[in-house]
Amino acid sequence: MHRSLTRLFPWAAAPATLLAVACGGGSSTGPAPAAAPVESAPVALVPPTTTTEEKPPAPAAIEEKPAAPEPSPGPPPEGKPYREMALALLDGPPGTWTGEHGNYHSPVREVWGAGDLLFAATADEFLQSNDRGLTWRLVKLPPSAQALSVWGTSPDEVWVGSKNVIYRSTDRGVTWKTTSVPANAYYNGFWADEKDVYAVGSDGVILHSTNRGETWERQGETLGLRWLYGVWGKGRDVWAFGDAAPKDGSWQSTTALVHTTDRGKTWTLVNINAAPLRGICGTGDGVMHIIDSSGSIHQSKDRGKTWAKAHTFGPMELSALACRGKSEIFVGGRNRTFQHSEDGGKTWTDELAAQNMWTKLAYSMVDTIFALPSGEVFVGGEGVYSPRPTGTLFRRR
């Protein structure tokens, strides 16, 4: 899921120039300097010698060569050339972060993976790693496709959300099939179990599939939802979250949390005293966690029936949430906010700040956090803003 679409679409477009970055380093976009003119070496004149029956040499034939053809124009923006390496991250010691603030040329929206395979949706391209996030290369999605979200159940079942379309891969991202959707939307999030697949997006769209995303049906059209950022489930319970349209018809959004227990046949609104929601997950201790756009995290210990505010990080928008294991939680947001708890949210630590990874002052945002069950954690989002917005991706082993 991605929270920054309301800022990026449809009135803003990210630059479409790929910068190859190695080891989290910076890049340069300036033109190459013009080559200095080269002067011809002087030619020495040798006086002719007199010989008998000397004949002047025949003039050398001048071979006319055709003029060089005009250079062909470059590919259109949607046909960017394939490059093997897009980004590389060092493999640091266990527990340390590698990467650099602003190490990619466009914001990183979402990261998902399984085992050694990972995908990253950025504002301009779609990236894939086959070595647990050490090196990343471009993936050729269908022409004009722009990845807004990525999620899967295994390396052989991955979905990518885009504008008005959903792509599905069953071969580790080698090929991508376009699925037919019944509603136009920016598709921001997915969730699935062994029977059902859900997709959510803008305009309150909720889609449900019973055949692994081959076909979709729309649900929850009467709920008054405005913009859904994601969907998550556990057992028979599935929740979708985001913004709702206020009943008085005003422009300002209200909180939206909807719940189903019957495979999406019915959806009900859940009462929660919070700002519009930006993320949801659950830990192994049975506790559910939700973050909102005003800087708070809320918890439920009764399968989402009631919610209580657990902690406030400050007056900023939170935008990324991940849970792992019994009690590990990661939270990210604006102002370079990245917090980590290993005790279910009782205490929090900013690991990137503690390891001096925020090396460049900038008003930036953490948009995605993904934690592999076996160890690696990835933090992605926006980078430095000068001379233009860039992206950031950190990795911890």
UniProtKB/TrEMBL annotation:
Gene3D superfamilies: YVTN repeat-like/Quinoprotein amine dehydrogenase (2.130.10.10). Pfam families: PSII_BNR. The keyword Signal applies. Residues 1-34 form the signal peptide. Residues 52-67 have a biased composition (Basic and acidic residues). GO terms for cellular component: photosystem II. Keywords: Photosynthesis, Photosystem II, Signal. Residues 47-82 are annotated as: Disordered. GO terms for biological process: photosynthesis. Residues 134-218 form the Photosynthesis system II assembly factor Ycf48/Hcf136-like domain. Residues 68-79 have a biased composition (Pro residues). This is Photosynthesis system II assembly factor Ycf48/Hcf136-like domain-containing protein.
